[in-house]
Structures are given as structure tokens and as C-alpha cells.
Amino acid sequence: MKTTCKIQLLGLHSKAMKKIICLFLLIWFVSLHMYSPFVVAGEGVPIKGKIVFYSNRHHGKLGLHLYDGNRVKFLAPEWGFSTWFKDGQRILVLAVDHAYIINLQGKVLETIETGISSLKPRLLFDESGFAFVGTKREMSRDGKVLSGIDNLYIYFFKDKSIVNITSFDEEGSIFGFDTSPVNDWIAFNWLKKIPIDPKTNKILNLELLKNKAYLLNLKTHEKRYIGEDFRNLQWTPDGKKLFYETSTKNGKIIERWSGLFSFDSETKTSTCIHEPFTSLGFRFSPDGKKIIYSNWYANGIYMFILDLETKKIDQVLPVKEINGEGINDNYPDWHE
């Protein structure tokens, strides 16, 4: 299809001027599609590095976005669970039963079939592979989920093999895990299916909400129990401590309360970092001094940064709406 750009501006009819103006219009048109119209340059919180996250800021379409402290760039129309490679030039993305490695232009460099419903990718410390939560579901004939069994799997890039490293065979869920950035340890939690009163549709006992948290060594297969009710597990960048959220105080679950804690695996002690604190998931800044997290706010989901020293909380990007609905900014990951 041939496109003709007709220009009559201030009496300028030269071919060179037409080409220049057509080029300017082309750049302007592309920029509208590459950059989100819902974030004006300079509106977001200044950061060092770049953040990849899942959002509908690009014309209301859900997909991966990149925030560099100045503007938001649309990357790819893929599901939002993603994580950075160490080089800061590649991103690993999980989408249902596939994984993709993309670059900063959103180009797919490699497609990986996991063959199982997959969530929350985390690269191994040596980047020889990645861990993910895989769910096997039993479905009814009318499409309803009858049961689901979560396990942790490792995909190895070299031989394209997949290994189940937890081997749970009863119905339950893994709500959080993280791979150590410095060694072969993986931290994860597991929660057995919770019985619900069919009459009231409520949980029969709040104490049943306490998951079991473990450390697992991929080389030695050593497994250590570390505690109960550890949610959103995250290693610090130096691999010395494990951060997590919990609703447990003095051994009992407190309704409508949650706090951020750190766990020292050597002393086996936990320290309160900030309370109250709740999130849909969080990640550390490259220097380990801040965390970025997503949570419900107004009528949408937005990202926030907590300074671990000052305890100051900043909203990363401004509140916006699309057709009366709030923005969905979720699953952020931060790279220097």
C-alpha cells in the first residue's frame, strides 16, 4: 500500500522539506505507540536503574512495560511475570505454559515450552536455568477447577530439561519463593488446601492459613524448615537475609494486619522491618536499600517504593484511569 504525504506549509513545496516533515510525523506516530500516553515524562518518581512491570498503561492494553525513571515504554503484549538477567539487556517472561526471553525493544530472542501452567520465574544464581511455580489442575467437564497441586520446577537452558524439585503429591499452593542470588539455596512456602465451611463460605480456622516455609539446596537436596506464615519470600541482594510478609504476631494470626520482616538463616531469628505492610509482591532495589512493591490503591493496583532506612513510601507512577477503571501496575522487578 502506497502512502502519500501531501504538505502545503508556509509555501514550502521542496521534496527535501516534505521528506523532513514526513519523517517528523512518522517519529511522532511511532512514539505514541511505543510510549504510554498515561505517563508524562517527569511525572514518575526518579529512580536509579530500570523497572520492568505488567500494566495496562499502554492504550489500556495489558502487557510488559519498562520504566527508566523518566518515561514508561511498552515492551510486549505478554503475561506479566518477569525477571531480569544480570546483563540488564534481557528479560525472562512467563506466559501460561511458555517462557520467553526478550530484549529491551520487546523482541523475542528465545521461546521456551514449559508444558505446564507456570508462574513467577526466578533465575538461578549462575543463570544456568530458572525456577518457576508449576500447577497441575484437575478440571471438571464444565471447565471448573476441582483440585490443583503446586510444585517448584527448574528449567535448565543447556539441555532444555525440566525437573520437579519439591514433588508434592497433595493439593496445595506455593504462594512465594525466591532463588538465592549467591548460591544454590531456594526459599519457598507451601500451603495445604484450606477447608471452607460450605454454609458460610468462610475458613473454619484462621490458623490453617499459616503456610510452611523451607530452604532447599539444589545440589545437596538438603531441606530446612524455617517457620510458618512466610509470604512473598525475597532474598536480599547479598544473599544474607530473607525478607517476607506475615500476619502472625506472638504465634497467632491477626486479621487485617501484615508486617514486613527479615529472617537470618544462621541465627534463625526474625526482625520486624516495617509495620503495617502488605503487598501483592515485592522486589529489592539493586543496592538493597529499597524495595518496590505493588498493592491495591484507590480503584486500581499501583507500585510503591519503600526506603528501608527512612521508612518513606513513594508512589512510583501517578494515579490514572482508563474508562473509569484504575490502572493495573503489577509484578515489578528492578535492575541497575
Entry keywords:
336 residues; mainly beta; Neuraminidase; 5-stranded antiparallel sheet; 4-stranded antiparallel sheet; 1 helix; 29 strands; 48% strand
Description of the structure:
- The chain has 336 residues and is mainly beta.
- The protein has a single domain, classed as Neuraminidase (6 Propeller), CATH 2.120.10.
- Helices cover 6% and strands 48% of the residues.
- It has one helix and 29 strands.
- The protein has one helix at 15-34, and strands at 50-58, 61-67, 72-76, 81-84, 90-95, 98-103, 108-113, 117-123, 129-139, 145-156, 161-164, 172-173, 177-179, 185-192, 212-217, 223-228, 231-235, 241-246, 248-249, 252-253, 259-264, 269-274, 282-284, 290-297, 300-307, 313-315, 321-322, 325-326, 330-335.
- Strands 12, 13, 14, 15 and 16 form a five-stranded antiparallel β-sheet that branches.
- Strand 23 and strand 24 form a beta hairpin.
- The radius of gyration is 23 Å and the shape is globular.
- The chain starts with 14 loop residues before the first helix and ends with a strand.
What is the compact description of this entry?
By secondary structure, the chain is mostly beta strands. Helices cover 6% and strands 48% of the residues. The chain is built from 1 helix and 29 strands.
The shape is: globular
The overall strand count is 29
Average pLDDT taken over every residue: 82
CATH-assigned homologous superfamily: TolB, C-terminal domain
CATH architecture annotation name:
6 Propeller
- Provide the gyration radius in Å: 23 Å
